[in-house]
Amino acid sequence: MKIKIDNSNSSRKKTEMLCCFVLEDSDKILGLNKISSEITASIKQSLKDINGEMGKITIVPTNNKMAAKRILLAGIGKKEKITNDTIRFVSGKIAQKARELKLKEFSIITPPSYVTEPISATSQITEGCKMALYKFEKFKSKKEGSSPDLSILVSKSNRISKAIKNSEIISDAVIFTKSIANLPPNECSPTTLATFAKSIAKKNKLKCVVFSKNELKKKGFGGIIAVGKGSKNEPKLIVLEHYGGHRNEKPIVLVGKAVTFDTGGISLKPGEKMDEMKFDKCGGCTVLGIMKAVSELRLPVNVVGIIPSVENMLGSESYRPGDIIKLYKGKTAEILNTDAEGRLILADALAYGEKQYSPKAIIDFATLTGACIIALGTNVAAIISNNERLKQKINESSKRTTEEVWELPLNEDYMDMIKSEVADMKNIGIGRAAGTITAAAFLRNAIEETPWVHIDIAGVAWTQAATKSKPYNPKGATGFGVRLILDYLQKI
Ligand code: BES
Ligand code: MG
Ligand code: ZN
User: Fold this and answer.
1) For a FRET experiment, which of 116, 139, 353, 465 has its CA 20 to 30 Å from that of 37?
2) What is the 102 CA–ligand 3 centroid distance (Å)?
């Protein structure tokens, strides 16, 4: 989809579909001042039909009485209820309508500044449309085909052009994340992810290093090796480095869990919905997407992405309940459930990130615990942190991007819950109590005092039964975290 800015008069805009926003209980079509008198009656009726209700759309044919072939009216609800997501959400709906009608192009009028701030509105239009038109159809013989192009009607300025360019890169990164996260496990092994990382690096001048199984063994990555043992698809540790800041400036380290399939291992998962465990690589895919955008946006910061990737399978080589393993930092862990594998590979990656880079901050993403879905559901991610300031920043980015997060506590009592009788730690807590927090407690042991935020994306990484339906999040992986962290990185 190509996007361009157009500051021509909206009532004279030649387009297959002129899309305008409407507030609830209002008969004003935002940004459209002149309507040909021959069609005012039908427009008035259509306005009444949707009454500006958030998410409702209706189409009015113009019967050659205007330059535009048809007008689409899109409700955005009451002005005081508009959020940082309203325009993104409704724009997604519009774009899907345009595709359904098989249009070659369509136009959206940016709402006036008394309704929404124009930079934010144009960014949301761009993101909403681009993301909503993504569809995972790699394995479909019959594909939907190409997406319509978009003209955004807004008064031209450098800031607006920049905002659109920015949003295009961000949306492309989200789409990239979704498209690899959606890959089935037989088509995506740790090696496949490493290949994706290398190709991003090559295109965008990032440094990329991939550690092989042998190197991981030699360097003492005991968690990654143990979890990876049961699969013939060998484990990898993928590292991408972006140097946009001063050479000696400490980087931000991003760590993402990439279990390309999680059977649970010897502690085998029940069969129901086990297919969804192809999404257990979403944390790693999010980090890959962020690194792609970070380099394309040439962000003036140093950022390192670290992705531990394994397949958690069961077989004669698998690690077992009862095993005691040694993690990268030297601490030992008693394995009591091989399905609690994410924390083992993340502990190695977090410790490596801290030791190797002495970072300013570490942020990790992981589909870590089913308990997170019980606690917060499928629309909000859990965050757990050791640092007020970093947490505050993430919360601010969450407000701006509407990728929602909620904090859970982590104090010494929770740390005690993962102490083992026979090793330094055990890889599960006590029963099912506070499952999301005890997993984070395990991770907390992997780092010293570096500011750290852990983001459990188990509920939000892909669309599940209880997920709020959003046009820009069609069925499958959501790319949660890409917009959130790119906002954070752009604001530091
Ligand atoms: N990948 C899962 C967590 C998960 C489950 C995410 C369902 C999304 C949906 C993780 O590896 C896991 O299996 N965690 C266990 C931990 C338990 C054994 C302590 C869980 O949550 O059941
Ligand atoms: Mg598991
Ligand atoms: Zn898992």
Assistant:
1) 116
2) 40
Distance CA 307, CA 278 (A): 16
Q: Is residue 440 part of a domain?
A: yes
- Which of 99, 123, 154 is a domain's end point? 154
**Of 343, 391, 470, 483, catalytic:** 343
Per-residue confidence (pLDDT) for residue 36, from 0 to 100: 84
Question: Where are any strands of DSSP class E within 274-397?
Answer: 302-312, 324-326, 332-334, 361-366, 381-385
Question: Does 145 have pLDDT greater than 80?
Answer: no
Q: Give the three-class secondary structure for 233.
A: coil
Q: Give me the CATH number covering residue 357.
A: 3.40.630.10
Query: What distance in Å separates the CA atoms of residue 105 and residue 107, rounded to the nearest whole number?
Result: 7
Pair (111, 226) in one structural domain: no
Name all contacts of 214-218 with Cβ < 8 Å and 24+ positions apart.
none
Question: Of all atoms in ligand 1, which is nearest to the CA of residue 280?
Answer: 1
The reported pLDDT for the residue numbered 34 is 87
Is 269 one of the annotated active-site residues of the chain? yes
Provide φ and ψ at 170, rounded to 5°. -65, -45
pLDDT, tens digit (0-9, with 9 covering 90-100), for 391-402:
999 999 999 999
Q: Region 99-108: what's the mean pLDDT? A: 97
Same-domain check for residues 132 and 218: no
pTM, entire model: 0.98
Are residues 445 and 483 both part of a single domain?
Answer: yes
Q: Are residues 8 and 120 part of one domain?
A: yes
Q: What is the mean pLDDT of residues 203-224?
A: 98
Q: CATH no. for residue 111?
A: 3.40.220.10
Select from 125, 154, 183 the last residue of a domain: 154
Q: Which domain holds residue 49?
A: 3-154
Residues 16 and 99 occupy one common structural domain? yes
CA dist., res. 19 & res. 151, Å (int): 10
Separation of alpha carbons 62 and 26, rounded Å: 21
- Are 438 and 484 contained in the same domain? yes
Active-site residue 56, yes or no? no
- Residue 239 belongs to a domain: yes
What DSSP string describes 99-114? HHTT-SEEEEEPPPTT
- Our mutation pick for probing the ligand 1 site, out of 339, 417, 464, counting the most ligand atoms within 8 A of Cβ, is 339
CA distance 394 to 485: 8
Distance 440 CA to ligand 3 centre (A): 14
Residue 166 is assigned to a structural domain of this protein? no
Identify which ligand lies nearest to the alpha carbon of 373.
Answer: 1
Cα–chain center distance at 278? 16
CA–CA separation, 311 vs 303, rounded Å?
Answer: 26
Strands 258-262 and 302-312, bridge-based pairing: parallel
List ligand 1's pocket residues with C-beta within 6 A: 262, 280, 337, 339-342, 367-371, 428, 435, 458
Considering the domain architecture, whether residues 107 and 179 belong to the same structural domain is answered as no
